[in-house]
Amino acid sequence: xxxxxxxxxxxxxxxxxxxxxxxxxxxxxxxxxxxxxxxxxxxxxxxxxxxxxxxxxxxxxxxxxxxxxxxxxxxxxxxxxxxxxxxxxxxxxxxxxxxxxxxxxxxxxxxxxxxxxxxxxxxxxxxxxxxxxxxxxxxxxxxxxxxxxxxxxxxxxxxxxxxxxxxxxxxxxxxxxxxxxxxxxxxxxxxxxxxxxxxxxxxxxxxxxxxxxxxxxxxxxxxxxxxxxxxxxxxxxxxxxxxxxxxxxxxxxxxxxxxxxxxxxxxxxxxxxxxxxxxxxxxxxxxxxxxxxxxxxxxxxxxxxxxxxxxxxxxxxxxxxxxxxx
Length: 326
Description:
Radius of gyration: 33 Å
CATH architecture of the largest domain: Clam
Distance between the termini: 91 Å
Strand content: 35-45%
Largest sheet: 12 strands, mixed
């Protein structure tokens, strides 16, 4: 009897041989081919409609086309090219930053090793079966659903190469499978690269960002010209609060604290009154004053105290005592 770990290792390292074929997903619904970028990069979305995709795969190298021969995605393992539905040149990016998530991705992307440590379709139900699929000797195994899944997931794995040839969930009525397959046929490197014109992903992103900034500037210019060139200073009542006390000397009453009001934050400090320098190393418009007993200082980093607000703060900190400024 075949052990699950043998299938898992063969599949996780596969395919060990070049694979060429046609993948079909049923039900045949219109697909949106997504290319998800790492590091919160925006995705490129290519609509190709329903239908099959023709694929070539050799380790990290991959080529995906529509049945009529139009490239959709090409990677040589170092660079990746994503083709849109128009005649524009493809977008090139670092292959490590992009993952194909379109038709057939279930069979073309190896699950990371840590995925198999979870409980979503990681545990076999019943023995490993020896089956024939597209005239290939294969293993078939049913995997149990996790707490957020329904129905068994049946996978068919090519015994020689470790390529996953089918993934089916009868409960969800979804089946992704090769309809044609060739394993071990040599494939030239030129199939996995693009030598024609291309657009750099980062340059395209910067160009789009620049257009967006220019559009924002034009809209603001329209507002300033047609509505109002400036708006008045408004007072929004927000209670000041002490966020945390950073330093405290209970014997002298000296402290430094963080303060905030809404999304505005700042600092508040006092020390026993002294004629020595008080270097707080704060930036911004620091307000300083004294009472008979203490020196005080405060600052807001996203705003500034007006006269009335500062007077109210002083009255709350030392009611009935006069604020002395130099």
